[in-house]
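Whiteboard transcription, Tuesday session. T.W. wrote the structure tokens on the left side:
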């Protein structure tokens, strides 16, 4: 296989990944998770670079050799950070795949419903099973109740309206799921800490190399040590900036992802509840949630199937 064939095959694989809305959602979630860390790194290192430029001016005014120009200066103090570039890239690739897994987890309840809806049409005996650690408990628990209701109705041969349990009857908008936020909060916290540690480690290394260079090249080491000693606040502020930006950004991402699932989950839940109450024409019609459209279509198809079964068995006058 020559290079052109490899490129063509890669393009086909890439198109396949972006072919469906839910796969695009998963990829975009991965980009958001890794992109936040990249953005925070860019902001922190841009700020640090400006401080280093001021320090270079101090070096020049205090006897830095003319042979040590700006490129050599930055090359020296950034040497170890540059050596960590490969690790930096690998870390963010790793974050991307963690993010895609997060996106996959978010869509898992909808995928479970869709797969069951598709399978039960041809195999009515199949059992609906929710995954123990699946996200968003409202949808998981009620879908389990709903599908068992339909299975019992098929055994009885009649589809009668059913009383909605009190814990579900008073829900009229997306509810806050503490378990969901706890699980994803812990995951995002781990990501935040990992990203912050990487920034803090590199920042400390850069300052260490700068002080080392000052001791080697400047005539008055006492003054330079005193000058850089007063810059400890820069390291501290950089650490605070990195941790604050990372924590706030990932917290915002957590609520953003929660909004992505809670509204869609409430829409599916509301349709199930309406169907159980006797509105057999109720179907899922979500606006702005394209990433679950393929799943809701399969669920709607199953509701059509159920309605036709009981309509056919219903006596006609």
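and on the right, the sequence the group agreed on:
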């Amino acid at each position: 296989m020559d290079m052109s064939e490899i490129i063509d095959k890669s393009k086909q694989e890439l198109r396949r990944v972006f072919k469906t809305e839910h796969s695009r959602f998963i990829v975009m979630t991965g980009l958001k998770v890794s992109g936040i860390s990249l953005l925070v790194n860019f902001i922190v290192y841009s700020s640090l670079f400006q401080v280093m430029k001021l320090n270079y001016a101090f070096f020049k005014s205090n006897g830095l050799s003319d042979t040590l120009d700006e490129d050599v200066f930055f090359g020296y103090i950034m040497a170890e950070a540059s050596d960590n570039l490969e690790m930096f890239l690998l870390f963010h690739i790793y974050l991307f795949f963690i993010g895609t897994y997060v996106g996959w987890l978010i869509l898992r309840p909808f995928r479970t419903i869709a797969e069951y809806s598709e399978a039960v049409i041809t195999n009515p005996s199949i059992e609906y099973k929710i995954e123990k650690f699946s996200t968003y408990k409202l949808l998981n628990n009620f879908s389990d109740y709903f599908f068992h209701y339909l299975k019992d109705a098929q055994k009885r041969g009649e589809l009668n309206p059913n009383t909605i349990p009190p814990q579900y009857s008073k829900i009229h908008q997306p509810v806050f799921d503490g378990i969901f936020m706890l699980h994803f909060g812990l995951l995002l916290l781990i990501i935040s800490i990992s990203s912050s540690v990487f920034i803090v480690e590199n920042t400390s290394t850069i300052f260490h190399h700068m002080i080392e260079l000052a001791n080697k090249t400047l005539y008055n080491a006492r003054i330079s040590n005193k000058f850089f000693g007063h810059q400890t606040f820069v390291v501290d502020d950089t650490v605070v900036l990195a941790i604050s930006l990372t924590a706030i950004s990932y917290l915002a991402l957590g609520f953003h992802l929660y909004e992505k699932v809670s509204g869609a989950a409430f829409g599916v839940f509301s349709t199930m509840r309406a169907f159980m109450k006797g509105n057999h024409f109720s179907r899922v019609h979500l606006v702005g949630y394209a990433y679950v459209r393929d799943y809701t279509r399969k669920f709607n198809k199953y509701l059509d199937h159920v309605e036709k079964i009981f309509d056919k068995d219903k006596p006609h006058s």
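Someone added at the bottom: The chain has one domain: 22-313.
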